[in-house]
Amino acid sequence: MIDLLHAELKRTWIQFIRYPTEVISGIVIIIAVFYGLFASAQYIAGPGFAFGDRLDAVVIGYALWSLIISVNNDIAINLQIEAETGTLEQVFLSPFGAPRVFLARAFASLALRLVILVVVVLLLMGLSGSRLAFPPILLLPLASLLLGGYGLAFLMGAAALVFKRVQQVLGIFQFLLLFLLAAPLEESTGLMQYLRFLLPMLPSTGLLRDLMARGLRLDWLTYGLALLNGMVYFALGLLVFRWAEATAKQRGSLSGY
Amino acid sequence: MALGSTHQHPATPLPLLPSSGKNFKISKDFICRWELNPFVQLAHRPTDGWAENSLSGSIMLDTRDLSKVYGRGKQRFEAVQQVSLTLRQGEVLAFLGPNGAGKTTTIKMIAGLVRPTQGQVTVAGEDPHRQPRALRHIGAVLEGNRNLYWRLTPEENLEYFGVLRQVPRKVAHRRGLELLARFGLEEKRQTPVQKLSRGMQQKVAIAVALIHNPKLLLLDEPTLGLDVEASEMVKALVRQIAQEGRAVLLTTHQLDVAEELSDRVAIIRRGRIIAEQSTEALLREFSSSTYHLEVEGDLSPQQIHTVTQLGATVQGRQITYAGPPETLYKLLGALSPVPLVSVQRDRADLTQVFLKLVNDQPDVSP
Ligand SMILES: Nc1ncnc2c1ncn2[C@@H]1O[C@H](COP(=O)(O)OP(=O)(O)O)[C@@H](O)[C@H]1O
Ligand SMILES: [Mg+2]
Q: A244 contacts in B (CB within 8 Å)?
């Protein structure tokens, strides 16, 4: 399993780095977007506004959002690409079984994305001369967020296996996700206050906002629920993925018949 | 090592399962295979630990009544019907049939990629549909030229797929280099697959399929789309691979490929196997019993008379005879003492066999 993880990291990295012009242009685009965001936030806040939690929150928030979006689409998009290029069936020939392989792939691509993100943030700090504070406690809700995020990624992957063309669905889904992640449901009262624990990733994003923007301390009970939420969605994702695999094998449509 | 250790073959051949019908003619054919196939040398034993094969010829692949129905209702389509095959180590079986006959579907059912509607697959004693572990025994090159990651080099592909097939990383790397050397790809090992010729890509794909030392190699149309030179290369590789003691199942709609490579042929048409026999026997069965003789020197009128009486026709020094084989010896006796140049029997090639079979078979409606 360690070997598999290593191999996936290596493969992901080589495929990423093989054509350096692609890499550089990609990074430049990300930096431009981030820098624009950063600068406009500064502009809106006004010159008198001291760099503080708010601005950090904007940048980190955007970074997280882009991370989650790419995590969510990751498995589905790669499944579709590999079905088109023809390597997918070779992957399904692995004695590890597809879920484990795709899990290892998910870790590998997450690692790559985190590396890119860190590089971008460091460059951004160099450009703007400001510092972003990243308290380590953020890692906890981030972990539960990613767990749920990968759960959804497996659900999307399952959809890609069964329905093949999922581009449009992914687009709509991305929009819904933006709405979900931005809506501060943790501020709501009444029934919604409880229902939000059933929706994917919401408890974790609420906690992140508490920590980053509201300066609250981590509430362990809420975190426990957020973690449970992440695990349940992750398990659900894996379960549905296995069902989708069986269905595709039944239809003979793994490679996209 | 992850492979091989759990499956020591018994020293004695596995008893053949009770023969039920025409698909189990194998044992006899297998015995005479060693004489018939010029490519198999009994003495050949790989020394590098590649295959721990005994010559017992244990069964590597066994399929029972494999059937696949695609779709439902009006779209219902029986792509494969009751295909039973047995394949032993060191044996090459060509799965021959026109486009759309169900070859790819069968191969994918064997590889666990398509779920059979009915029937069972056993590869080295394990069922790939029940136990993913069974996939350790299977290497496959599927149809088309896209079995590899195009951005990776051959070396990187081999290592990656090795690990994906549960070979420890270091072992995968070393074996990868060995395979590249053996396949004559050393110089290209650092070139992204994308930039290789189609023939080289196919060789790399075969190498990748062998990286975990599988007992069964599945090749779907391995020479399709290759130029003459590349397909000769691939054919030579397939022979080598079988010599190492692996079982090879290849599909093809090209008759010459089947004829040159296979020990046995299974001819499939509209999802059903319509003939399955050793290639040699199949050719023999369909060869006519017409003999062509050539003599050196002229026959006497008396000889010509006798020979004609026996049912042959004489044209100068050429004699053509079509009749029972026993009479052939009388004929030869009658020719004595004129020196013989050659005696030849008309030989069918697979093209004739195939056309005959495909045309003769009445359509069996389900
Ligand atoms: N996934 C699928 N869904 C529906 N029909 C299929 C599917 N795969 C193959 N077929 C049909 O089954 C038949 C056999 O196909 P295939 O096994 O690819 O044949 P071959 O490899 O011998 O050319 C064809 O008529 C093909 O159209
Ligand atoms: Mg085919």
A: none
Beta carbons within 10 angstroms of residue A161's beta carbon: 30
| H or E stretch covering B189 | none
- Residue B114: which of A7, A10, A249 has the nearest Cβ? A249
Reference B246, options B137, B163, B168; nearest CA is: B137
Residue A37 near chain B (CB below 8 Å): no
SS3 at position B247 = strand
pLDDT tens track for A7-65: 999 999 998 888 888 778 888 887 787 777 767 766 765 555 444 445 566 666 777 77
- CATH topology of B48-284 equal to that of B289-345? no
Contact B94, B266 (CB under 8 A): yes
Ligand 1 contacts (CB < 6 A) are A 251-253, 257; B 70-71, 77, 79, 97, 99-105
Distance in angstroms (rounded) separating the CA atoms of residues A240 and A242: 5
> What gap in Å lies between CA A38 and CA A42, rounded to an integer?
6
CATH topology of domain B289-345: Alpha-Beta Plaits (3.30.70)
Question: Which tens digits make up the pLDDT trace of B157-181?
Answer: 999 999 999 999 999 999 999 999 9
Q: From CA B178, how far away is CA B183, in angstroms rounded? A: 9
DSSP A192-208: HHHHTTTSSSHHHHHHH
Domain B48-284: give its CATH code: 3.40.50.300
Question: What is the tens place of the pLDDT at every residue in A181-199?
Answer: 777 777 777 777 777 888 8
Tens digits of residue pLDDT in A212-228: 767 778 888 889 999 99
Contact predicate B221/B145, CB 8 Å: no
